[in-house]
Amino acid sequence: MSSNSGHPSRPVFMVDSGRGHPNQHRYYHQQMPRHAEPELVPCWTFPPARAEMKKRGWGGTNAGMAWVLTLILLLVFAALGLGTYQILRLQTEVQRLSQEMPAQMQSSAPQRQVGLNPAELNRNKLKSAAHLIGRGDQSTSSGILTWEAKLGEAFTEGVKYINGGLQVNETGLYFVYSRVEFLSPKCNPEDFYVHKMRLQRNSHNRTIMEDHREGFCSAGSKKPWMTGSHIGSLQHLKESDWLFVNVSHPHLLSKNYHSNYFGLFKTH
């Protein structure tokens, strides 16, 4: 260490960096004047980089969410379009049905007003019919045969049995029929038998069907004979018309009620 004569000099100590003593180093800092420490310059390298990474991560998430929202919106619009199409189709169908129904109602309305249901039609058909069977006691002076109207297969529906005849209760087309059978223990070739059906209308009567039976046995025959007669036809009858059957020899009629019958039924 050296010094000049004119100016006093501060003491300077040399510090050995390799083998420094702690006391010397502390003394040096005590002797040297302290100066203000320089301000630190902020360095934001790490935080912005981290923020940028976060921003990039959120950007990828936002893109995925955008795709999902887009698909949802497309599905919603597709559903709305399908619903609109269905509504328009239903409206068109309703309009078509509303146009067809009045025509169908007009075409079927007269039938409902003037027609009869099947039950009524069947009831009317059953009423306009009768079938009478023969009886054993036919010794009548008038020649009009009497019949059984209630027993066995006999019935009357829609017509009346009065004094051996049938009276219709409505005008229409009827099929009328009758069959009789004659029996006798002896035979005369010259004999003949008559089977008639007559109609009485407004106190006037007339024959509507007739059958003659003759030549049904041989001369000199000693065997019993039998012959039958059947008549039937379609007749237009009016309300209150009265039909009856008479024969020329009622006492010769068979006692078998299945062999003698009289009836009618309405066809239209």
Structure, explained:
Its main location: membrane. Helices cover 33% and strands 29% of the residues. The protein is of the alpha+beta class and 268 residues long. Strands 1, 2, 3, 6, 9 and 11 form a six-stranded antiparallel sheet that branches. It has a five-stranded antiparallel sheet with strand order 4-5-10-7-8, with no helix packed on it. The longest helix has 69 residues. The N and C termini lie far apart (163 Å). The N terminus is likely disordered.
List keywords for this structure.
six-stranded antiparallel β-sheet; single chain; five-stranded antiparallel β-sheet; 11 strands; Jelly Rolls; 33% helix; 268 residues; alpha+beta; 3 helices; 2 domains
Order of secondary-structure elements: HHHEEEEEEEEEEE
Number of helices: 3
Number of domains: 2
Estimated share of beta-strand residues = 25-35%
Unreliable segments of 5+ consecutive residues:
1-5
Structural class: alpha+beta
CATH topology grouping of the largest domain: Jelly Rolls
| Structure summary, number of beta strands | 11
CATH class of the largest domain: Mainly Beta
By CATH, the architecture of the largest domain is named Sandwich
End-to-end C-alpha gap:
163 Å
In round numbers, the mean pLDDT is 77
CA gyration radius, whole angstroms: 66 Å
Most strands sheet: 6 strands, antiparallel
Estimate the global geometry from the Cα principal axes: rod-shaped
Q: What helical percentage do the residues reach? A: 25-40%
GO cellular component, one term: extracellular space
Protein name: Tumor necrosis factor ligand superfamily member 6-like
Family: Belongs to the tumor necrosis factor family.
Keywords: Cytokine, Membrane, Transmembrane, Transmembrane helix
